[in-house]
Amino acid sequence: MTDNSTTRSAPGEQVLSLRGVSKNFGAVSALTDIELDVHAGEVVALVGDNGAGKSTLVKVLAGVHQPTTGTITFGGNPVTLPNPAAALDLGIATVFQDLALCENLDVVANIYLGRELNPLRLDEVAMEVKAWTLLNELSARIPSVRDVVASLSGGQRQTVAIARSLLLDPKLIMLDEPTAALGVAQTAEVLNLIERVRDRGHAVIMISHNMEDVRAVADRIVVLRLGRNNGVFYPDSSNEELVAAITGATENAVSRRAVRRQAGQDA
Ligand SMILES: Nc1ncnc2c1ncn2[C@@H]1O[C@H](COP(=O)(O)OP(=O)(O)OP(=O)(O)O)[C@@H](O)[C@H]1O
Ligand SMILES: [Mg+2]
């Protein structure tokens, strides 16, 4: 891991703020007037039905898509994210659902893919030590950093992809469906890993369809419906209110706890 941890934000500091962000694909409004705030040391779950705009929002923040309108503030400054490299440079890392790992390369090579310490003279020993240190810090269960990715389980692959995204010490890490297609034990391992990432002070946005996983790890749950905000909830919000917001039975609901918080009545 690079030693630029001073770029990480102070706990609770606002890392990301979106105001009025919209994205049209021709006549299709994928996102309309999105508002979103994410703080350091916080996991925000982005939930919503198929087509709600979750992946589009992540892609806007990853520099893959350009917003049609709206303001993105990152680290206190208004930013544009013209391409994925620009997002990465600013400290926004993304683990896309397909993980983009190379099956035939080992764990070290995958963590350092394209970011070799010294591209002219591959510093294999230093990269191996750093990869091992990073995985240890995350208490990741990878038998050997010299194992090829093809031999790893789904959970271990997700772990490698997350470790890879942490290499440049991003302020924000976004995970698209990190537990989809994982078994019970592997899901628990990945959720633990997400908590450790949060505890290191990174801000985390996690897309998930699994409400159990969301409740287990999220500090806040942001619902999107048909490309619009449709409520902010907490892990102790009732299933009924969460499902109602996701399916559209309620409109832009603010949970009772959010109202108490806004009124300063919560401890
Ligand atoms: N590149 C694109 N071109 C045109 N329309 C798109 C494009 N990407 C997304 N859309 C549309 O934008 C809307 C939101 O899609 P998006 O993939 O963001 O939803 P999602 O919440 O991630 O859904 P899912 O849970 O199924 O992954 C959909 O109507 C989709 O068809
Ligand atoms: Mg999606």
Overview of the structural elements:
33% of the residues lie in helices and 24% in strands. The chain is of the alpha/beta class. The chain has a single domain (5-101, 171-262), classed as Rossmann fold (3-Layer(aba) Sandwich), CATH 3.40.50.300. The strands form two sheets. Strands 6-7-8-3-9-10-11 form a seven-stranded mixed β-sheet, with helices on both faces. Helix 5 packs parallel to helix 6 (184-199). 42% of the residues are buried. The site of magnesium ion (MG) has 2 residues, from helix 1. This is Fructose import ATP-binding protein FrcA.
**Strands in their spatial order, largest beta sheet:** 6-7-8-3-9-10-11
Number of domains: 1
Helix and strand content put the structural class at alpha/beta
Helix content: 25-40%
What ligand molecules are bound, each kind once? adenosine-5'-triphosphate, magnesium ion
Could you tell me the CATH topology label: Rossmann fold
The CATH level-2 architecture is identified as 3-Layer(aba) Sandwich
Put simply, the count of helices is 9
Number of strands: 11
CATH class: Alpha Beta
- CATH H-level superfamily: P-loop containing nucleotide triphosphate hydrolases
Low-confidence stretches: 1-6
**Which of globular, elongated, flat, extended, rod-shaped describes the shape?**
globular
Average pLDDT metric: 89
The largest sheet is: 7 strands, mixed
Which series of helices and strands comes N to C? EEEHEEHEHHHEHEHEEHEH
